[in-house]
Amino acid sequence: MHEVVGPGRHPKNPINQALKAISSSRFAVLEIHSGHRWGVVICRACGDEIAIWSTPRVPENNAAAIQRFAERHKH
Amino acid sequence: MPTYEFTVLLDRAPEAQDFDLIFESGLDDSTPEIREGRGVLNIARDADTLSTAIVSAVENVERAGFRVVGLGTEDLVSLKTIARRLDRTYESVRLLAAGKRGAGGFPAPLSGDGWALYSWAGVSAWFSSNYGGAYSVSDDNRVIAAADHLLRARALVSAPVLDGLAGLGRRARRTEA
User: Fold this and answer.
1) Under a CB-based contact definition with an 8 Å cutoff, are residues B29 and B44 in contact?
2) Could you tell me which residues of chain A have a Cβ less than 8 Å from any Cβ in chain B?
3) pLDDT digits (tens, 9 = 90+) for B42-51
4) B110 in helix, strand or coil?
5) Which site among A65, B61, B130, B164 is 20 to 30 Å from A17 CA-CA?
6) Residue B121 above 80 pLDDT?
Protein backbone atom coordinates (compact mmCIF):
# COMPACT_ATOMS: atom_id res chain seq x y z
CA MET A 1 0.00 0.00 0.00
CA HIS A 2 1.52 3.36 -0.94
CA GLU A 3 0.30 6.91 -0.95
CA VAL A 4 -0.56 8.37 -4.32
CA VAL A 5 1.65 11.38 -5.00
CA GLY A 6 -0.99 12.96 -7.21
CA PRO A 7 -4.66 12.01 -7.54
CA GLY A 8 -6.43 10.99 -10.74
CA ARG A 9 -5.13 7.48 -11.51
CA HIS A 10 -8.46 5.69 -11.15
CA PRO A 11 -9.69 4.11 -14.41
CA LYS A 12 -13.13 5.76 -14.12
CA ASN A 13 -13.10 9.46 -15.00
CA PRO A 14 -15.84 10.65 -12.59
CA ILE A 15 -13.86 9.17 -9.69
CA ASN A 16 -10.67 10.75 -11.03
CA GLN A 17 -12.41 14.13 -10.98
CA ALA A 18 -13.66 13.62 -7.42
CA LEU A 19 -10.19 12.65 -6.21
CA LYS A 20 -8.60 15.64 -7.92
CA ALA A 21 -11.13 17.97 -6.29
CA ILE A 22 -10.31 17.00 -2.71
CA SER A 23 -7.55 18.69 -0.78
CA SER A 24 -4.37 16.64 -0.39
CA SER A 25 -3.57 18.52 2.81
CA ARG A 26 -6.80 17.27 4.43
CA PHE A 27 -7.15 13.84 2.79
CA ALA A 28 -4.85 10.97 1.97
CA VAL A 29 -5.67 8.79 -1.03
CA LEU A 30 -4.25 5.29 -0.65
CA GLU A 31 -4.18 2.83 -3.52
CA ILE A 32 -4.92 -0.71 -2.34
CA HIS A 33 -5.65 -2.71 -5.52
CA SER A 34 -7.00 -5.67 -3.59
CA GLY A 35 -10.00 -7.45 -5.09
CA HIS A 36 -12.78 -4.97 -5.82
CA ARG A 37 -11.27 -2.20 -3.73
CA TRP A 38 -9.12 0.22 -5.73
CA GLY A 39 -8.26 2.40 -2.76
CA VAL A 40 -9.49 4.51 0.12
CA VAL A 41 -9.74 8.20 0.99
CA ILE A 42 -8.80 8.97 4.61
CA CYS A 43 -9.49 12.17 6.53
CA ARG A 44 -6.15 13.13 8.06
CA ALA A 45 -7.80 14.96 10.97
CA CYS A 46 -10.13 12.27 12.28
CA GLY A 47 -9.24 9.00 10.51
CA ASP A 48 -12.66 8.42 8.93
CA GLU A 49 -12.34 6.72 5.57
CA ILE A 50 -14.36 5.98 2.44
CA ALA A 51 -13.71 3.16 0.00
CA ILE A 52 -13.14 3.50 -3.72
CA TRP A 53 -14.26 0.55 -5.83
CA SER A 54 -12.34 -0.44 -8.96
CA THR A 55 -15.52 -1.08 -10.94
CA PRO A 56 -18.48 0.55 -9.21
CA ARG A 57 -21.86 -0.04 -10.81
CA VAL A 58 -22.28 3.71 -11.42
CA PRO A 59 -18.96 5.59 -11.09
CA GLU A 60 -20.75 8.95 -10.81
CA ASN A 61 -22.43 7.78 -7.60
CA ASN A 62 -19.17 6.57 -6.04
CA ALA A 63 -17.68 9.97 -7.00
CA ALA A 64 -20.59 11.88 -5.45
CA ALA A 65 -20.20 9.88 -2.22
CA ILE A 66 -16.51 10.83 -2.09
CA GLN A 67 -17.44 14.49 -2.54
CA ARG A 68 -20.03 14.32 0.25
CA PHE A 69 -17.41 12.70 2.49
CA ALA A 70 -15.05 15.61 1.76
CA GLU A 71 -17.81 18.16 2.48
CA ARG A 72 -18.56 16.53 5.86
CA HIS A 73 -14.88 16.56 6.85
CA LYS A 74 -14.07 20.24 6.70
CA HIS A 75 -12.38 20.14 10.10
CA MET B 1 -36.27 3.35 -13.12
CA PRO B 2 -35.49 5.98 -10.48
CA THR B 3 -32.38 5.99 -8.29
CA TYR B 4 -32.87 6.14 -4.51
CA GLU B 5 -30.12 7.37 -2.20
CA PHE B 6 -29.93 6.43 1.47
CA THR B 7 -27.36 5.43 4.08
CA VAL B 8 -27.28 2.05 5.78
CA LEU B 9 -25.73 1.78 9.26
CA LEU B 10 -23.90 -1.50 9.92
CA ASP B 11 -23.40 -3.39 13.17
CA ARG B 12 -19.61 -3.18 12.77
CA ALA B 13 -16.95 -1.51 10.66
CA PRO B 14 -15.85 -3.60 7.66
CA GLU B 15 -12.35 -4.99 7.78
CA ALA B 16 -10.05 -5.55 4.82
CA GLN B 17 -11.38 -9.04 4.10
CA ASP B 18 -15.03 -7.87 4.12
CA PHE B 19 -14.98 -5.55 1.13
CA ASP B 20 -14.99 -8.15 -1.64
CA LEU B 21 -17.95 -9.95 -0.06
CA ILE B 22 -19.79 -6.62 0.28
CA PHE B 23 -19.25 -5.89 -3.42
CA GLU B 24 -20.17 -9.42 -4.53
CA SER B 25 -23.31 -9.53 -2.40
CA GLY B 26 -24.99 -7.04 -4.76
CA LEU B 27 -23.64 -3.90 -3.11
CA ASP B 28 -21.54 -2.62 -6.02
CA ASP B 29 -23.94 0.34 -5.98
CA SER B 30 -22.78 1.24 -2.47
CA THR B 31 -19.82 3.26 -1.22
CA PRO B 32 -18.58 1.85 2.10
CA GLU B 33 -17.42 4.28 4.71
CA ILE B 34 -15.99 4.06 8.22
CA ARG B 35 -17.50 6.94 10.17
CA GLU B 36 -16.37 7.43 13.77
CA GLY B 37 -15.45 3.74 13.94
CA ARG B 38 -18.83 2.59 12.60
CA GLY B 39 -19.56 0.93 9.27
CA VAL B 40 -21.79 2.84 6.87
CA LEU B 41 -22.87 2.08 3.31
CA ASN B 42 -23.89 4.97 1.07
CA ILE B 43 -26.39 3.37 -1.31
CA ALA B 44 -27.58 4.73 -4.68
CA ARG B 45 -29.96 2.02 -5.90
CA ASP B 46 -32.23 1.78 -8.94
CA ALA B 47 -35.63 0.38 -7.98
CA ASP B 48 -39.34 0.80 -8.64
CA THR B 49 -39.91 2.16 -5.13
CA LEU B 50 -37.82 3.37 -2.23
CA SER B 51 -39.17 0.56 -0.06
CA THR B 52 -38.01 -2.00 -2.61
CA ALA B 53 -34.57 -0.38 -2.71
CA ILE B 54 -34.25 -0.43 1.09
CA VAL B 55 -35.43 -4.03 1.53
CA SER B 56 -33.15 -5.33 -1.23
CA ALA B 57 -30.18 -3.45 0.23
CA VAL B 58 -30.82 -4.90 3.70
CA GLU B 59 -30.95 -8.40 2.19
CA ASN B 60 -27.65 -7.78 0.39
CA VAL B 61 -26.01 -6.51 3.58
CA GLU B 62 -27.11 -9.58 5.54
CA ARG B 63 -25.80 -11.84 2.77
CA ALA B 64 -22.44 -10.10 3.22
CA GLY B 65 -22.42 -11.08 6.89
CA PHE B 66 -23.48 -7.77 8.49
CA ARG B 67 -26.60 -6.57 10.28
CA VAL B 68 -28.31 -3.29 9.45
CA VAL B 69 -28.93 -1.37 12.66
CA GLY B 70 -30.52 1.72 11.11
CA LEU B 71 -30.74 4.12 8.17
CA GLY B 72 -29.55 7.68 7.71
CA THR B 73 -30.39 10.45 5.27
CA GLU B 74 -28.20 12.76 3.20
CA ASP B 75 -28.95 16.43 2.87
CA LEU B 76 -26.36 16.79 0.10
CA VAL B 77 -27.97 15.61 -3.14
CA SER B 78 -27.36 15.74 -6.88
CA LEU B 79 -29.55 17.52 -9.45
CA LYS B 80 -30.71 14.08 -10.56
CA THR B 81 -32.08 13.33 -7.08
CA ILE B 82 -33.61 16.81 -6.82
CA ALA B 83 -35.43 16.25 -10.12
CA ARG B 84 -36.83 12.92 -8.95
CA ARG B 85 -37.99 14.26 -5.57
CA LEU B 86 -39.71 17.22 -7.26
CA ASP B 87 -41.17 15.07 -10.05
CA ARG B 88 -39.47 17.20 -12.71
CA THR B 89 -37.12 16.32 -15.54
CA TYR B 90 -33.40 16.55 -14.95
CA GLU B 91 -33.12 19.15 -17.74
CA SER B 92 -35.78 21.33 -16.10
CA VAL B 93 -33.94 21.35 -12.79
CA ARG B 94 -30.57 21.87 -14.48
CA LEU B 95 -31.89 25.01 -16.21
CA LEU B 96 -33.34 26.32 -12.94
CA ALA B 97 -30.04 25.71 -11.15
CA ALA B 98 -28.14 27.50 -13.92
CA GLY B 99 -30.50 30.49 -13.73
CA LYS B 100 -31.57 30.03 -17.34
CA ARG B 101 -35.20 29.49 -16.41
CA GLY B 102 -37.48 30.40 -13.54
CA ALA B 103 -37.37 32.97 -10.76
CA GLY B 104 -33.62 32.89 -10.24
CA GLY B 105 -31.85 32.56 -6.94
CA PHE B 106 -31.63 28.78 -7.00
CA PRO B 107 -29.39 27.83 -4.03
CA ALA B 108 -25.75 27.52 -4.96
CA PRO B 109 -24.14 24.09 -4.77
CA LEU B 110 -22.31 23.36 -1.55
CA SER B 111 -19.61 21.21 -3.10
CA GLY B 112 -16.64 22.56 -4.97
CA ASP B 113 -15.30 21.24 -8.26
CA GLY B 114 -16.48 18.03 -9.81
CA TRP B 115 -20.05 16.82 -9.25
CA ALA B 116 -22.23 19.61 -7.86
CA LEU B 117 -24.13 18.70 -4.70
CA TYR B 118 -26.91 20.81 -3.22
CA SER B 119 -28.56 21.04 0.19
CA TRP B 120 -31.96 19.40 -0.09
CA ALA B 121 -33.17 21.55 2.81
CA GLY B 122 -32.19 24.70 0.89
CA VAL B 123 -33.51 23.59 -2.50
CA SER B 124 -36.83 22.33 -1.15
CA ALA B 125 -37.37 25.61 0.74
CA TRP B 126 -36.58 27.62 -2.45
CA PHE B 127 -39.06 25.53 -4.43
CA SER B 128 -41.74 25.94 -1.80
CA SER B 129 -41.42 29.74 -1.78
CA ASN B 130 -41.24 30.09 -5.58
CA TYR B 131 -43.61 27.39 -6.77
CA GLY B 132 -45.73 26.61 -3.76
CA GLY B 133 -46.27 23.18 -2.34
CA ALA B 134 -44.72 21.57 0.71
CA TYR B 135 -41.49 20.05 -0.52
CA SER B 136 -39.54 20.29 2.71
CA VAL B 137 -40.53 16.94 4.12
CA SER B 138 -40.59 14.53 1.25
CA ASP B 139 -42.26 11.17 1.11
CA ASP B 140 -38.78 9.69 0.72
CA ASN B 141 -37.70 11.09 4.08
CA ARG B 142 -40.81 9.68 5.73
CA VAL B 143 -40.21 6.22 4.27
CA ILE B 144 -36.57 6.28 5.37
CA ALA B 145 -37.54 7.41 8.85
CA ALA B 146 -40.11 4.60 9.12
CA ALA B 147 -37.65 2.00 7.83
CA ASP B 148 -35.03 3.29 10.28
CA HIS B 149 -37.44 2.83 13.20
CA LEU B 150 -38.36 -0.69 12.04
CA LEU B 151 -34.70 -1.70 11.72
CA ARG B 152 -33.88 -0.31 15.17
CA ALA B 153 -36.88 -2.17 16.61
CA ARG B 154 -35.59 -5.35 14.99
CA ALA B 155 -32.33 -4.90 16.88
CA LEU B 156 -34.16 -4.49 20.22
CA VAL B 157 -36.30 -7.61 20.35
CA SER B 158 -36.23 -11.21 19.17
CA ALA B 159 -37.80 -12.31 15.88
CA PRO B 160 -40.84 -13.96 17.54
CA VAL B 161 -41.56 -10.78 19.51
CA LEU B 162 -41.23 -8.67 16.36
CA ASP B 163 -43.58 -11.03 14.49
CA GLY B 164 -46.08 -10.59 17.29
CA LEU B 165 -45.85 -6.81 16.98
CA ALA B 166 -46.43 -6.92 13.22
CA GLY B 167 -50.17 -6.80 13.97
CA LEU B 168 -49.71 -3.14 14.93
CA GLY B 169 -49.18 -2.28 11.29
CA ARG B 170 -52.39 -4.03 10.27
CA ARG B 171 -54.32 -2.22 13.03
CA ALA B 172 -52.95 1.15 11.82
CA ARG B 173 -54.14 0.43 8.25
CA ARG B 174 -57.63 -0.50 9.52
CA THR B 175 -57.75 2.74 11.53
CA GLU B 176 -56.89 4.79 8.43
CA ALA B 177 -59.46 3.04 6.24
Assistant:
1) yes
2) 14, 17-18, 20-21, 34-37, 46, 48-51, 53, 55-58, 60-71
3) 999 999 999 9
4) coil
5) B61
6) no
